[in-house]
Amino acid sequence: FGITSDENFVITTTNRKEITEDNFSELVQDGVTLYLLQSVDQMLLLATKERIDFLPHYDTLVKSGMYEYYASEGQNPLPFALAELIDNSLSATSRNTGIRSIQIKLLFDDSQGKPAVAVIDNGSGMTSKQLNNWAVYRLSKFTRQGDFESDHSGYVRPLPVPRSLNSDISYFGVGGKQAVFFVGQSARMISKPASSQDVHELVLSKEDF
């Protein structure tokens, strides 16, 4: 790597966790993306890409024929799909101490290449691992364990309040993806964790699949 003997450096995960002798076997696995940096909080000089590979959760097979949220006969399915798309925002902003902002924008210009639905919030943001796990079908957001770092870490279900929304819309971790591909052909998630300077982006494309 062209590092001189008197130069200091660190190796970190994409979540900026430094690799040490103690955590090496835990954090360094086949296929993991690592950063070689001068310091843990060093600015990235270029955008990096990380390929996501996963096997579908078994519920994808055993529950694939279940009645889905947008299949209500005789009802307009679009509101159900939009409700799924703001589920992440509801959870991400649930612990905000200041203003809680969630916006839904319909974009009909050429800035995205095609018309798009954009859901924007000022929530806690997702790490690269959490963004990775959002892409996994049928992985319950309340039961993710082991190597899976949930995008709903520390989430506490709110008490039921009449005429209000909480973040229990999508329980099995599949509704958001189904909503995306019901409305359009691709999804782009852009997220910056509140505790990090890094911006993470995930693209799911029906054409790429």
TrEMBL record:
Transmembrane segments: none annotated. It holds the Pfam family HATPase_c_3. One of its GO terms (biological process) is double-strand break repair. InterPro entries: HATPase_C_sf, SMCHD1. It comes from the Eukaryota. PANTHER family: STRUCTURAL MAINTENANCE OF CHROMOSOMES FLEXIBLE HINGE DOMAIN-CONTAINING PROTEIN 1. This is SMHD1 protein. It comes from Lanius ludovicianus (Loggerhead shrike).
